[in-house]
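quick one, 164 residues, struct below
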Amino acid sequence: MKKGYEVVSKGYNAVKNIAEGNFSLHEVFLDGLWLLSPEVRKYYKITEIIRFQAAIVAEYRSAFKRFNSSGSFSVDELEYLSKVYKRLFEESLDNLDNLAMVITANKMRMSDEERLKAIDRIFSDTVDKLDFLRDFNESAGLLGLQRAREKSDIRGLGDYFNTN
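---
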């Protein structure tokens, strides 16, 4: 019986040590997923996302200030513009938060490939937001110009008929 116990005990300990060694390998692998590789850190789209985010903020502020001071938009229309800009800004901040999570070591367990794919998705969404903003501002700007021309035409006609 003692011999049987020793065989079972040695076998159990051998299996236990192998399992713990295997777990250690997995632990090292999983811990490596917390780290950010230099390739990911240097990925050019990271700086582009930040640059585009700054452009979004600068362009919407400038456009809203221009639309607000033009006198071509009603209070309701300015409120609508403000809501669009606010939502766009909040979604852009979400992109920056997601980027920070992806590129900050010890935040998420991801492989380099997964991190790069996540950065690519964030980049694509940020580009879409900037393109939308530019189209939106261009459309609103054209509307403002049309209204300013109409006011000018009406004033010109009024002056023409008042002088005769």
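The two ends are 127 Å apart (CA to CA).
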